[in-house]
């Protein structure tokens, strides 16, 4: 499991519920287009995951300031 957001104590439950349970998904179709097939994305997910991790980190820091 390679999470798109940081895995920290505050969100481990969410990762368990939403991230680890997706292992049974083989194909995902959005608006008629296949975006994941045979449990693999047809593009390099690295940049999107890097961006998601950065955005999640900014969000957690902003929430800590509240």
What is the topology, as strand order, of the major beta sheet? 1-2
Q: Stretches where pLDDT falls below 50 for ≥5 residues?
A: none
Kindly estimate the percentage of residues that lie in beta strands according to DSSP: 5-15%
What is the end-to-end distance? 30 Å
Shape: globular
Task: List the topology elements.
Layout: H1 12-19, E1 28-30, E2 33-36, H2 46-65
Antiparallel strand pairs: 1-2
What does this entry show, briefly?
With 66 residues, the protein is of the alpha+beta class.
Question: Can you walk me through this structure?
Answer:
A hairpin with a 2-residue loop joins strand 1 (28-30) and strand 2. This protein has helices at 12-19, 46-65, and strands at 28-30, 33-36. The chain is 42% helix and 11% strand. With 66 residues, the chain is an alpha+beta fold. It has 2 helices and 2 strands; from the N terminus they run αββα. Strands 1-2 form a two-stranded antiparallel ribbon.
List keywords for this structure.
single chain, 66 residues, alpha+beta, two-stranded antiparallel sheet, 2 strands, globular
